[in-house]
Amino acid sequence: MADVEALVPPLPVRTVLWRTQAPFLVTLAVALVAGAVTEAGPTWPYVAAGVAAACATAATGLLVSRLGEGVLIGGAVVHMVVVAGVDYASWPTTPSMVGLMMLPALHLSYGFRARRGPYLLAVGVPPILTALALGSSRAVAATWASAAVQILALVAVATVVYLSARHAWLQRVQLQQALLEARAAVNTAQVVADAIETGVTYYDTAGRVEVRNKAMTGFAQRAGYDAETVSAQHIYQSDQVTPVDLGEQPMERMLRGDMVDHDLFYLGPPGDQRAVTFTTTKLDGLAGPAGWVLAAHDVTDLVNAITTREEMILTFTHELRTPLTSIIGFAEMLQDTLDLEELGIARPVEVIHRNATHLSTLVQMLLQAGIEAQAEPHFAPTDVGDIVRESVASFQPKAAGRGITLEAGTPIGDTRAEVDHLRIRQVLDNLVSNALKYPPAGTTTRVLVEGTPDHVRVRVVDQGPGIDPQDLPQLFQRGFRSVTARRTATQGMGLGLAIARDIARAHSGEVTMVNNPDGGTTFTLELPRHPNVQTADAAAGDQATYSSALT
Fold first, then answer.
1. What whole-number distance in Å separates Cα of residue 206 and Cα of residue 226?
2. Per residue in 243-267, pLDDT tens?
3. C-alpha distances in Å from residue 132, one per residue of 147, 153, 324
4. 44 versus 481: which is more confidently predicted?
5. Cα dihedral 493→496→498→499 (10° resolution)
6. How do strand 380-383 and strand 416-419 relate by DSSP bridges?
7. Position 2 pLDDT exceeds 50
8. SS3 letters for 293-322?
9. Alpha-carbon span 503 to 519, nearest angstrom
10. How far is Cα 405 from Cα 392, in angstroms, rounded to an integer?
């Protein structure tokens, strides 16, 4: 506490002198003039008192800068002595002036950081000096009574002022201590923020920067960020060429209330760019919004690693396809041209053919996983119900071999939309294939399709064991295989569902999954009829035009 008190600056000396000495000198001068005018005897005691008080004030002003606030305390005591001297010299012709000690007593009680020493002088010196002055001048009882009343009033007022001053001073010290702690916390937070690689900026509700760490400063400099225009000169879309419009930049989107969630941008001039993801978080305080936090993370190494991995996968799979095609072709030629049973190699050739075919399927899936996200759909008016029937028909042999009944439900409503026929067929093949892997024999898998004014939905409903809840968050991740797949040793690379979702999203659609209450799962493919077509509130004429376009 003492260290904190030392940091609280005292009032300037001139301010103290003006607030304490000047009122006393004015009051004393008035009292002395009044006493001298009414005095029947000599007036030299009043003149001497005024000169002494003025000299004490002058000396205080000259010495305080060298000797410190102790000179101020001495000056206040001198003023009390002057008042006592006037009492001694002027009695019995004038009443006691002990009340004039009130002003220096208040000065001692209120000032000097509300310490006890000056306060004790304020309440102890006046009674002593008054007793000495009146006792030496042999004052009568009435004068003693008058002086006692004034002394009691002085002590009472000085005590109240001291207690108030001490309370105020302690509050000031506590506020100073809280301020120091807050500054230390801010400094610590800044050091910690500067130590992390993720860029972080805190904006208040007016969009002003309150905290920004070193990493975010680096990102801002790379992007050519201008604080006045709140825009960046070098921020590009994922193609690394197209500049991001001001209204779509992370800062602008955040300030207008749009959430930014791991959106990828490229910062820096072409040829010297870094891939950075941005995320915004809105802060809410007790009284309402408290601002926003914008976080940026450099993912250049990750993006480069993914790109390199995809390129390697595409290269290796392309290289594998040629020898696999030869192996499968020669195995089929052996099966077609030779009597393998007679030669005793039917079993080995069949194993070669089966495993080579399986490996070829895996290679094809790797190729699909590498190119699906990059390929653009070729939209054309298509009846999704026809695609459902095609897919179900192609999987009938596999379903029969597993003892599962595979059914295509009757389409409900208008099931036409503009889609890429081949790619939506691939989605359905992946979903139907997945729905035939896990259900036991004797169950039924249904593929249902229905149209709404806005969308076409396809549901693949099986009666299998369902998906373990712990697998749901990762179900559509590339390479993920569920607990059921690992437990049953079901073949697969965990790419089918990821590919299906990628294709659906390329159509502005989605693939979702839920566990059925009575067992099994339902995968739903939802496709918009067309991104440019009005939806539920479309006028009848517009809907007729759209329907005729699909015919």
1. 17
2. 988 888 888 888 788 888 888 899 9
3. 12, 19, 122
4. 44
5. 120
6. antiparallel
7. no
8. EEEEEECHHHHHHHHHHHHHHHHHHHHHHH
9. 27
10. 11
Count of C-beta atoms within a 10 Å radius of residue 176: 15
Q: Is 88 left (phi over 0), alpha (psi -120 to 50) or beta?
A: alpha
Under DSSP, is residue 403 helix (H, G, I), strand (E, B) or coil?
coil
- Kindly calculate the radius of gyration of the chain based on its CA atoms and give it in whole angstroms: 47
Distance, in Å, from the CA atom of 22 to the CA atom of 28, rounded to the nearest integer, reads 10
CA 331/CA 509 separation, integer angstroms:
42
Beta partners for 418? Answer: 381
Q: What is the pTM of this model?
A: 0.44
**What is the Cα–Cα distance from 380 to 530, expressed in whole angstroms?**
10
DSSP secondary structure code for residue 531 in this structure: T
344: region left, alpha or beta (phi > 0 left; psi from -120 to 50 alpha): left
Angle between helices 300-337 and 346-371 (to 10 degrees): 150
Q: Which two tokens stand for residue 119?
A: 């306060």
Please tell me what DSSP assigns to residue 97. -
CA distance 27 to 34: 11
- Cα(360)–Cα(347) distance, rounded to whole angstroms? 20
Between 471 and 350, whose confidence is greater?
Answer: 350
Cβ pair 526, 417 in contact under 8 A: no
Residue with tokens 């190729």: 367
CA dihedral for 9, 10, 11, 13, sign (positive or negative): negative
Neighbours of 471 (CB within 10 A): 15
Amino acid at 68: G
Q: Are strands 231-232 and 225-226 parallel, antiparallel or unpaired?
A: antiparallel
Give the Cα separation of 469 and 523 in Å (integer).
15
The helix/strand/coil state of 398 is helix
Q: Is 88 helix (H, G, I), strand (E, B) or coil?
A: helix
Going through 496-547 in order, the beta strands assigned E by DSSP cover 510-515, 521-528
